[in-house]
Amino acid sequence: MDNWIGWLLAALSVLALLLFVWHGLQRWSEIMRRYRHNEDRARRGEPQDGAKKRRKARKSGTLAWFAVATDDVHGAARALPLRTATLAPAGDGPFRAAEGLFVFKGDGFVYAVGEDAWQRGDFEKIEGALERLSRNYGDATWFCVDSLSSCFGWATARGGTLRRAWCGNGDEDRVLWQFGELTLAERELGFFVDDPRDGTDDEHKWWPVAADVEALARLWSKDPDAAFAAAAGLAGRW
């Protein structure tokens, strides 16, 4: 009886191992299929699938990201920390960002872009990541454009300390996160200047839009949009 149980457990272990290997091979095959497909499209001068999906998501959903001035992709991923990190080939980033977080480098910065960077208002977690990243790399920034819920936000930390943060929901006329004094960059862009044409009784007379967040990103770091679709990097959950 004991021998029979032992053989059964051994058989189940082998079966589980085979299933794990099979799943890994299937995933790798899919990644390589996308990569070859995008390579063929690039040679023909056609837009990559990832770029099209990114533009579609940008128009209809969420784009949130961290940015640090370094080329240390693996170090930034550990500082977040990025869980279940796997390699993502060029062109695969937009697909992986829609499922979690995609970490890559471009234009002198490392970006961590994806749905997980928003966290639906878990600002304590976002602040913790900014503090760890800035402790390692000097400065770290975070931005959010959530067009579906009209939530827009930004934050910056230096040397392990949060310096400035703001996030609000325009549809609900509600500030969700606010910390620190208005920065010079925000003043230069005309943030929080009441619109004299606004005749409503809303408490707040100015709310950001996606273009405002992107303009601030270009001043504090850079907008990851240009390097996003074509970059290789790490992908996982946060």
In short:
The chain is of the alpha+beta class and 238 residues long. Helices cover 43% and strands 25% of the residues.
| Physical arrangement of strands within the biggest beta sheet | 2-9-3-4-1-5-6-7-8
Fraction of residues in H or I helices: 40-55%
Give the CA-CA distance, first to last residue: 46 Å
The overall pLDDT average reads: 80
Give the low-confidence spans: 44-60
Tell me the number of structural domains.
2
What characterizes the major β-sheet? 9 strands, antiparallel
Range of strand content: 25-35%
**Strand count:** 9
Instruction: Write down the overall geometry.
Output: elongated
Derived from helix and strand composition plus strand pairing, the structural class reads alpha+beta
In DSSP terms (H or I, runs of 4 or more residues), the helix count works out at: 8
> What's the SSE pattern?
HHEHEHEEHEEEEHHHE
Rg computed from alpha carbons, rounded to a whole number of angstroms = 21 Å
Could you give the topology of this structure?
Elements: H1 2-43, H2 49-60, E1 62-68, H3 73-79, E2 83-88, H4 93-99, E3 101-106, E4 109-113, H5 123-137, E5 139-146, E6 151-158, E7 161-169, E8 174-179, H6 184-188, H7 210-220, H8 225-228, E9 233-237
Antiparallel strand pairs: 1-4, 1-5, 2-9, 3-4, 3-9, 5-6, 6-7, 7-8
What labels describe this entry?
238 residues, alpha+beta, 2 domains, 9-stranded antiparallel sheet, 25% strand, elongated
Description:
The chain has 238 residues and is α+β, with helices and mostly antiparallel strands. The protein is built from eight helices and nine strands. It folds into two domains: 46 residues; 189 residues, no CATH class. It has a nine-stranded antiparallel beta sheet, sandwiched between helices. The N and C termini lie far apart (46 Å). About 7% of the residues have low confidence.
